Amino acid sequence: MNPENFKSLAAGHVVRHPTGYFVFVPSKLPPPIRFDNDLVLKLSRADASLSELSGIGALLPDPHVLIGPLVRREAVLSSRIEGTQASLADVLMDESVPVANKLESAAADIKEVRNYVNALEYGITRLNELPLSLRLVRELHKKLMSGVRGHHATPGEFRKSQNWIGPASSNLMNAPYVPPPPDDMVELLSDWERYLHVRDQVPDLIQCAILHEQFEAIHPFLDGNGRVGRLLVTLFLIERKRLSQPLLYLSDFIERHRLDYYDLLQRIRTHGEWAPWLHYFLGGVEATARDAARRAHRLLALRERYVRETKGATALVDQLLTNPYISIARVSGILKITSPTASKVVKELEAKGLLKEITGRSWGKVFVASEVLAVLEHPAVEN
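^ thats the sequence. predicted structure below, dont judge the formating
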């Protein structure tokens, strides 16, 4: 880390470690934020979009029907930022009709995505009995990292050694960013948690953006910091009751604007410039909330049509929206009918265009509700 790149002391200071490398020690929270007209307008637009999405969540007849697939979409995108290759179709297919003898790399990627889903669902449930806190952060990390790449990196425990952020070939001496050493990290995490519990002093979305940046700057785990940081955004908004259901996820926006994301976080450390990061974060909330609202409306419209087409087979329709991949055996179990009867039902849905067979086999057939999958996989639109 080159100390000459750090031009301002506004967000922290650079310290030389006794062994020769440099580390960055962030300033305690909160930072000074100037609420000019542009920032206020950006905040207003993000707040409005988030409120609209929260309203949709409150009206859902069965929230899990939409939350399930959207959580998995987020898990895929968040894990992809960290290098996994699993697609949403891979994950949904594996959940519905597990494929034996998968390539080891594919199985590992799907396991990482599943861990993300489990961590998020665990965090949402845990908020009913434990406030968002360092304790919950550690619990999330343990769920996230158990049995996957990085499992050796003490899942559920804050680091006790120095880490760094940079290309695979980088080290402590030349990495673009080296977080605070463990001794400083402990105090900074306590300060981060204190600010996490501050209420009614700063707009929720601004506070969320600040907390996210500081968490990434502290980088308290040896691995998995990015995924935990993105989980915390959703959990923060749920705890503050800004989201009625977990429908907002920023990983898609961050993935599409990844270079800006890293550059703006680093710019805070090097130049103390908070405004560009806040604009980016608020823009991400606005774009993501609008996209999630459109996706939710399309899925609900499909649900309404599918219920009509299946003559009221709501249980089957809801399963297709939760996971569009299905087999005759699953249809039999969902509707509690015999296999021959389930086969007849599936043929009728094929004839109506609701299901499509994708294996080409005469046995062990798998079907997909292509329209549902298309809604989930459709690229986000930012307007």
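The chain has 15 helices and five strands.
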